[in-house]
């Protein structure tokens, strides 16, 4: 692992330390997990934007997914 230095507001550090203690973990472990989750959310948002742009360029045809309608199970049968 690599050590990095960050500048954070004192309130944020205190809140992170409090939660880390409650979770029986370290500040670093908590920050690693939070950063990994943030990166995953950013990746998801970027993929969603990419898909949205693709559908704007080439919209789905009205019956494009009709073949799958018989396959769907909604639980109301």
Summarize the helices and strands and which ones pair or pack.
Blueprint: H1 10-22, H2 27-57
Molecular structure report:
There is one protein chain. The chain is mainly α and 77 residues long. The protein has a domain at 10-59. Helices cover 57% and strands 0% of the residues. The protein is built from two helices and no strands. α1 (10-22) crosses α2. The protein starts with 9 loop residues before the first helix and ends in a 20-residue tail after the last helix.
Determine the oligomeric state from the structure.
single chain
Structural class label? mainly alpha
Note the total helix count: 2
Low-confidence stretches: none
End-to-end Cα distance, whole Å, is: 54 Å
- Helix amount: 55-70%
- Structural Rg: 22 Å
**Helix and strand element order:** HH
**What value does the average pLDDT take?**
93
Shape: elongated
Number of strands: 0
For the largest beta-sheet, the strand count, sense and barrel status come to:
none
Amount of beta strand: under 5%
């Amino acid at each position: 692992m690599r050590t990095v230095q960050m500048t954070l507001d004192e309130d944020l550090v205190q809140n992170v330390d409090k939660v880390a203690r409650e979770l029986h973990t370290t500040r670093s472990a908590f920050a690693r997990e939070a950063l990994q989750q943030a990166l995953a959310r950013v990746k998801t948002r970027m993929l969603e934007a990419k898909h949205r742009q693709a559908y704007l360029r080439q919209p789905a045809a009205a019956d494009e997914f009709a073949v799958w309608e018989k396959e769907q199970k909604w639980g109301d049968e």
